[in-house]
Amino acid sequence: MTIPLWTADEILDATKGKCSRADWTVDGVAIDNRTIEAGDLFIAIKGPNDDGHAYVASAFANGATAALVSEIPENAADGGILVLVDDTQSAMEALGRASRARVDAQIIAVTGSVGKTGTKEALAVVLSDQGKTHWSVGSYNNHWGVPLSLARMPRDVEFAIFELGMNHSGELGPLSKMVEPHVAIITTIAAAHLEFFKDTSEIAAAKAEIFEGITRGGAALLNADSEHRELMKRFAREANLARVWHFGEAPDTEINLKNITLKPQSSDALVTIQGHIKQISLPVPGRHWVQNVLAVLGAVELVGGDVDKAVRALHLLKAPSGRGVQMTLECEGGSFVLVDESYNASPIAVQAALKVLGKMEMSKGGRKIAVLGDMRELGEKTTEIHASLANDLSENEIDMLYACGPNMKHLFNAVSPPRQAGYASSSDELVEDVLRTVQASDVVLIKGSLGSKMKVILDALIKQSEMLRAVKKAGA
Ligand SMILES: Nc1ncnc2c1ncn2[C@@H]1O[C@H](COP(=O)(O)OP(=O)(O)O)[C@@H](O)[C@H]1O
Ligand SMILES: [Mg+2]
User: Which among 391, 389, 373 has a CA at the least distance from the CA of 381?
Assistant: First the structure.
């Protein structure tokens, strides 16, 4: 018999909830009724726009075994089992803490301005090869995602990896205290969510809150090439951590990048881990992936994993959806390569993506086309930061820029006319122009903050390609 994720007694104990029955168990936890699987516990969270209590009946209809609620929903009276608590958010956090307390696993927390999800997924790939591993889904990294991801952790895991995110000071500390990591990684400090901070030093201070939850004897793994290296080191020292390790190109780092070869679709690098030399090969392009993998290998070493085995597992890495996935699509007269970076964008991530585009191998007549949507939450520096990407377009020899949204207009105006392919205030208005322009042998990068809806353009290119494929097939 498989052991359930939670028994009723354990849930009632952890949450101080009241329930008339104790003869049930659950195998999963969900807060979104659309992702419910049979046998789940549904937690009815009150959000700013929506109240989960309205979805309890639908959660039961979708197979939930029980629901954690702070009031009895009217329409769920004849449904499944209800657990009544004072506050469902606190109850979910309590369940998360109980989950953390009962495992005997090595726990890794990942934060940083960019690269959290990529690093977490890479850790999941290499550690799954070494023992039972649990990790947060997607970017579930806030006050809902972190306790939920904890509550979903099987009791017999050997490794677990959690993504921790924040938009404001004071958010990361409590999340880290819930996770109690043995190792905390800070991938990078860069301008993202700058709207809520004075400068990147303030962002560094907010990221350093992750040290607050590190367990006794635990370690921090920091970026040696960051301009805030000294500041971060000071915060780490103040937190009294047993070990503070660095990864990067700067000399004297525990995880040291000696040599790197960037190719259009992959990278090779020579790395030392505490002096031991390792040759690594990654099936994903871009320096940023090598940087993230340095942190991955450092964390494997710090949690007592097998680094050589981890190096061998790196061939399994994949770019997470919307973060650099490359695909070949059909267009009139042939095919072109699309780089899907439509999931999000901050200045450092756009620069990283343009570097990858710059390195792409081109066949004759092909053009490098960047289709960029607004970067959001950059505060008063928005105009300047967008315009400054003009240098990156020329350095990486990008042939054409399609700019989308009021912020990207500043970049459009800052580039020289041969690069100015097109501008529109929304992706809906830009899509036809891009469809008309793309031709065989081009490479097209699509990137923007999620809110800039660049996926509209991606979807249109994919749809066009599918139609052309169908026509070809019919004609064959
Ligand atoms: N170390 C890094 N430096 C610069 N850019 C990066 C780095 N890691 C990832 N990126 C870029 O940032 C984007 C978002 O990556 P992701 O792993 O989803 O970050 P997060 O979870 O922190 O938002 C990717 O599409 C990639 O272009
Ligand atoms: Mg993320």
Answer: 389
203-205-210 Cα angle (round to 5): 105
Asked whether the beta carbons of 451 and 374 are under 8 A apart, the reply is yes
Span 103-116, pLDDT tens digits:
999 999 999 999 99
Query: Measured between alpha carbons, how far is 370 from 367 in angstroms, rounded to an integer?
Result: 10
The model carries a pTM of: 0.92
Q: How many residues does the chain have?
A: 476
Residues paired with residue 30 on neighbouring β-strands, in sequence order: 42
- Helix (H) or strand (E) segment spanning residue 308: helix 307-313
Q: Look up residue 324 and give its two tokens.
A: 């650099």
Crossing angle (nearest 10°) for helices 8-15 and 88-102: 120
In this structure, are residues 64 and 30 in contact, taking their beta carbons and an 8 Å threshold?
yes
- CA 162, CA 291: separation in Å to the nearest integer? 19
Q: Which residues surround ligand 1 with Cβ inside 6 Å?
A: 112, 114-118, 139, 187-188, 288, 291-292, 323-324, 341, 344, 348-349, 352-353
* pLDDT tens string 263-322: 888 999 999 999 999 999 999 999 999 999 999 999 999 999 999 999 999 999 999 889
Q: What is the DSSP letter of 16?
A: T
Q: How far are the Cα atoms of 59, 99, 239, 383 from residue 377, in angstroms, in the given order?
A: 34, 34, 30, 12
What atom in ligand 1 is closest to the CA of residue 292?
1
Q: Judge contact between 135 and 145, C-beta under 8 A.
A: no
What is the Å distance from ligand 2's center to 263 Cα? Answer: 25
Residue 406 has pLDDT above 80, yes or no: yes
